[in-house]
Amino acid sequence: MGAQKKKDAARVPEGLSRQRLQAIVIADSFNTRFRPLTLERPKVLLPLVNIPMIDYTLAWLESAGIDEIFVFCCAHSLQLIDHLKKSQWCSLVRTIVSHKSTSVGDALRYIYEQQHTETSQIQGDFVLVSGDTVSNMPLAELIREHRERKKRDEKAIMTMVIKKQCSRLRLGSDQLFVAVDPVTKQLLYYNEGGEVCLDKSLVLDTSVLVCNDVKDCYIDICSPEVLSLFEDNFDYQHLRRHFVKGLLVDDIMGYKIFTHEVHSSCYAARIDNLRSYDTVSKDIIQRWTYPYVPDISFSGNHPLKLGRRGMYRASDAVQSRSADIGASTVIGYGTRIGNGGKIFNSVIGNGCSIGSNVVIQGSYIWNNVTIEDGCEIRNAVVCDGVKIRAGAVLQPGVVLSFNVVVGRDFVVPAYSKVSLLQQAIKDDSDEELEYAYSSRGTADLLSGVNNLQMESKASELGPDGAGYIWEVFDSSHDEEWWKHSIVPIPMEKLADITQVTDDGDIEDESVVPPRGELKSDNDSISTDANDPNDDDYGYFQREVRETFLRAVEEDNNVDHVTPLINSLRFSYNMASADCAGAIFYSMMRLAVDSPHNSTSELYRNATSIINKSKGLLGFYVKQIDEQIEVIMKFEEMCEETAELVPLFAQIVHFLYDKDVVQEDAILRWGEEKAGADESDKVYLNQCEAFIQWLKEASEEEEDEEDS
Predict the structure, then answer these.
(1) Fewer CB atoms inside 10 Å of the end CB: C or N, the chain?
(2) 87-94 — which CB contacts under 8 Å span 24+ positions?
(3) Tens-digit pLDDT profile for residues 3-14
(4) Which of 259, 219, 258, 227 is nearest to 243 (CA)?
């Protein structure tokens, strides 16, 4: 990492090298979304693909050239300080502790107060992030941009990072509306989750750009005035809801906030709930966060070995030969997997013991977990030290906190949160901290020594179980449940999205388009010439491929897979043709990745997969345009994978024989290609004889009909 830091520092612009780059990391979420887990461990130390969340944040800040990082601690501060002392960033990090802070506003006010009592505190512009941020974006250029803007306009005190997102459903976040001056990038309006009420002056200004297809990365470049403004305004508690909105409506002080939209090649996300935890974990596994991925050491971790289909495995993990480990799965160090187990799309931590005939799908198993024979776990989070006895079942959405024991053959209801701690009858508000618990030891909590009023119900996890069920799924509150869990989006919610999509043609001037000016759509926040939808399709195609591979491994039929593909389709706002292309890509990649020693064997792989999956593909190729998309996608794949080139005409012919693509689609594709340059006619020339045969057959049919 030292060499990497020197390399990145060499790229820092000259103007930045004269001034130390500092950052403030808020290591407390100031909400209760991760309870009961955060009653025993700070959120930023929860494992994300087997590495503490905050390690991703610190590794990124160090590689971006930050010289000094102030980590603000509140809940479980001793755990966090101990972790930082043992980390590779101990010389880079300084901790600031306050157990009285209950919000980001309180934290920043406390940091400001320390300016007068401690030396070497914040000396100039600084990066402000939370300790649950995962990013690989460069910061030097962004900081330089902020400082140059501040020189021109002393009121420009903050730059917010935003990023185009395909769907807010991926992160479980609320709808965000922003209004921005497309020339200066000044933020003019900000609203997250509430009713949109634009000022009349913004509506009448034809140059204002209004967007609801961006996400707030919660990465800010701040001038020192930001801290003093929090000190002067004690009603500023929430960074966005109070501070940002307050500045936008304050005409007296005249302070300004600007935006910086990161390019599609950069990753930036915050883990704010369990759905974003799931999404970011998948992004890490699929390497969108490179170089912060499991097979590279960046936090003192032991890198895992990356295998085919995105499988990461520790060198000393022991797996029975009859166990089936699927795509996009991580297996940690010292873990043992018994006979007949099936693990798909999951993260398994270090030191776990998994018995025989265990099924784990779409789940996160943390460290030192024991899972006995015959258990079934789907879309669940299982914390350190948990023991799941033989035959137990975790239904989707379950969260088991630390050291819980699930009894033999016990079925934990869907969406349950289970802890050794009883649940408070009256839960704390979202603005309160876990320090109400953490100011006392966990042992005291577990023995019932605390000042909170507790539920009196007994533990119900079977006669040999240990733990209290906190929350069970309630249909009257399903809006929050599906949004903030790792369970795939329910079909009824997709139906609502589908209805909105189908009604999208209705002209309604009150509806703000995803991105565009109120009066004109000629401008864009970003001046990047690249099509931002390319990034969306890349994410979409990867997730479709992952879903397809899981379906193949689990031998699911079309009825099971189609809803999952539809879920992705509506989440990413894709058309049927996009689905068809992504599914065919997944099919052909599987053919290429399957063992073969010759072109003929590759052809057999491809035809076998097409035969098995033509029903799924057929669901999305009912129109000619969708069938043409499949042929064009195959052209792209041949350009990427040379061994497919000689098979192009044969596979197109096979698709025709199996009624996947129709004659009209092939002929129209041929007509469109006929006018292309000779260099673009490689695949058309391969199909020349086949197309000629189709034309002749079509003419014979017409002659027969005429006669």
Answers:
(1) C
(2) 87/55, 87/58, 87/299, 87/300, 88/1, 88/299, 88/300, 89/58, 89/62, 92/58, 92/62, 92/66, 92/67, 92/68, 93/58, 93/69, 94/68, 94/69, 94/70
(3) 344 344 434 454
(4) 227
